[in-house]
Amino acid sequence: MNMYKNSQQETVERPWGNYTVLHQDAGYKVKIIEVNPGSKLSLQLHHKRSEHWVVLSGEAKITRDEEIFVLKPQESIDIPKEAKHRLENPTKVPLSIIEIQNGDYLEEDDIVRFDDIYGRTNS
Fold first, then answer.
1. Residues 99-119: tens digit of each pLDDT
2. Which residues are registered as beta bridge partners of 102?
């Protein structure tokens, strides 16, 4: 069990790893995202929310529009609404981040995928 989670929270499995919603209220949602070694999320954007990511453990390779960042534990990045972005774990150890979503609509269907190694694109 991950040290950041408790038994009351549901973990949702994805092809790249998993996420757990730690807390949600009007206008914001807080998640732990775990990315398996060598895995990556789709290149995507959100119309209705911005995100703030903080690396807890591991190393994150992040694409935000035309820029690429490498973040280590305790480093963070903002992902504005409409910004194309991708989270990757280029290492051989698991990556854990905190994601804080802000917006009026925070459901999982607010996503446009441009590139996805798991075949989940919708553009």
1. 999 999 999 999 999 988 877
2. 28, 50
Please report, for the chain, the start and end positions of each structural domain, with discontinuous segments joined by +. 11-115
Query: Tens of pLDDT along 24-78?
Result: 999 999 999 999 999 999 999 999 999 999 999 999 999 999 999 999 999 999 9
Give the separation between CA 107 and CA 30, rounded to whole angstroms. Answer: 12
> Which of 107, 100, 109 is CA-nearest to residue 23?
100
CATH homologous superfamily, domain 11-115: Jelly Rolls (2.60.120.10)
**List of long-range contacts for 82-85, beta carbons under 8 Å, 24+ apart:** 82/45, 82/46, 82/47, 83/45, 84/43, 84/44, 84/45, 84/114, 85/43, 85/44, 85/45, 85/51
